[in-house]
Design brief:
heterodimer; A: mainly alpha; B: 264 residues; mainly alpha
Chain lengths: 269, 264
Amino acid sequence: MTSIREQFGRDEWTRHTPKQKLMRYAILFGCALAIVWALGSIEVVWAWVWGAPEQIGDLFGRMYPPDPTNLGTILKVLWDTVNIATFATALAVLLSLPVAYISAQNTTPNRATLWLGRLILVTSRSVNTIIWALLFVAIFGPGIVAGIVAIMFRSIGFIGKLLGEAIEEIDTRPVEALEATGASRFKVIVYAIIPQVMPTFWAITILRWDINLRESTVLGLVGAGGIGIILQGAIDTFNWPEVATILLAIIALVILGEVISAFLRRRIL
Amino acid sequence: MSVQRDTWVKPPFIANPVLRWAVYLGVIGYFGWVSLTMPIDWARVAAGIERAGRIFSGAFPPSFERSSLLIDGFVESLKIAILATAGGVLLSIPIAFMAARNVVPLPVFYIGRAIIIIARSFHPVIVAILFVKAVGFGPFAGVLTLIVYSVGFVAKMLAERIEEIDFGQVEALRAAGAPYLSTLFYAIFPQIMPRQIGLTIYQLDSNLRASAVIGIVGAGGIGSTLANAFGRYDYDFALAITIVIVAVILISEAVSGVIRKRIQ
């Protein structure tokens, strides 16, 4: 049997060499330094921090018990929220198909379209839904339309990017086979590319619908329709029991959305 | 043997024709009905186009005149993100253990899962509003919000990783008579550490992004600056802020990508 000394060049077994240890401590020290800097210089009224648990407890105390008198209205607005998410996802999927096509390296017609595609994807993804919503509420006025367009603008980047990556990973042999038989560009897309990316396409659509359901619950806070509007109203009027009902409704909606998307994923994929 | 045909026909998406047409009609019916009942004020939309022109002409060129305000907002967002990541990750480790089926008894598992589901259900903006009401305007509400947001994501992913660990090492330590904490430190932590570090970096990036949004409802950081600029119709300053937000997000995405690649 080899001794520990022969195996590791040390008398005792340790997990890391001294150099690794030094590196680890340096990184930990760096993290600690960043936290201390942030903690020391952040503009916070510390009295509020110490009072926070009590304040939060008080808030929850006021919410109990939830008040279901407006449940009818809440469910109706919840339905609007579902419609915003579903509609926006459907439109975004349609619009992102050409964007994905031109932003995938192997299908894009030329360099200019490739960069145009990438520009659309980056712009769409890097602006948050709420910021898109602020803009579209200014344009379309408060309501469900601004919400749909805002979520659609945000989703195009997400769907387009993932779908573009899926197109880049396809097997090129079916494409070549069809091209060799003299098939038109359109037929190549329909018979060689689409069947290969179909499963990914459905997976992305379902995933984005699930995300959009969550996102559309807050659109109302900036006036873009959905459950957020009555949530904001209830908070502004300090109607905490109703706030509790709305929050419970949102949890139910999100869990339902997850159940539905898990079911669809199992059936389709 | 199947029916002989002269031409190949693409197999249908859903084999059962009744179900297939029911699904198609249902989808068409849903979209048709919702688009007909949707309250769209076309006059408002038409007026909106003109309004959009005004916003865009007001926004160009972007104004970087008050860049000190911009930088202050960003530094505050960065501080919020750092504190929330530290707090959120620390808190999510015990919660992840509670929510991993293979290391805790069933009742504890349900509590852990419930915490994660609640933390994940609410959009950070909703959580931010509640915290702003409870503890007042400013970065503290932002930190609390993003802690909840981080727990929802990090604890969920970490719990999944804990459920996948190789249990042989745990059994070996238990067989050697190691106490619970030693089992934790020597058999479980080393296995989940790489995932934990990757998640932390990802979450820092994600928190920086989210801190730009929760500021819109008063939880501090660059979002507050942006909301103020929008509220005062300073569209040129708002555009400048948006451009910088996009730039910072792209940079932080690139940096965290590089770090994660080096760790793996």
